[in-house]
Amino acid sequence: MNDTTLLLEARGLSLAIAGRVLCEGLDLDVRAQQAWAIVGPNGAGKTTLLRTLAGLAEPAAGDVRYAGTPISMLSPRERALRRGMLPQDSQDAFAATVLETVLVGRHPHLSRFAWEDAHDLAIAHNALAEFGLATLAGRDVRTLSGGERRRVALAALLAQDPPLLLLDEPSSHLDIAQQAAALDVLTALARARGKALIMVLHDLHLAIRYCDHVLLLGHGRAEAGAAPDLLRADRLSALFGRPLKELRDGDARAFVPL
What we know:
By secondary structure, the protein is α/β, with parallel strands linked by helices. The chain has a domain at about 5-90 and about 160-255: Rossmann fold (3-Layer(aba) Sandwich), CATH 3.40.50.300. It is built from 9 helices and 12 strands. Helix 6 links the parallel strand 7 and strand 8 (about 195-200). The protein starts with 5 loop residues before the first strand and ends with a strand.
């Protein structure tokens, strides 16, 4: 894939919950090698939008397509081969090792009743290593800390290897070093393998550092565009209902509330 490959498109997308409009008429094009941040206040509908883009929730109007194909025409397995979804939190109801948990990401690639082979195992081990978890492969996933479990979920997504990655607060439970390390891996992957990222991010610093495109969602409206055009003090102040000031140190930028 090159940087012009269209991986996801939404046309006329409208979302509503319990009669409350979250956005109307949203058009969105997401291409290979792009990193998108979905930014907005609590309750704006960021998770609902991400779930709709993943095909896990129905829009009030409009449609979503993967590489030109409506997601309604794709089977669950075909969807899993085209996009991966990281929810806000992961639950572990049954005992499983870290390696077994990451191997779940390989299931869309297996034929019915097939077992993982050496190739799948190598992919899973490499994914664990990318997130600094190689030594934990044999651990029961239920014994991990919240940050370790979050990195396991990211490793499973890496093992799934879809072209489109949808991530709901991927930095949650991670300390500041692990946040940077995880997003370094994900954005490098997008550039190197022609993938695209769409991430719900509460931390504006991460959006500034890692994302080239942004979708602002709030007050029943959505606006998508290049990050430098939208991550500005005036726009963010209006979005969050609180005056924000931009600070600069060389190329680094940050927003602080007044």
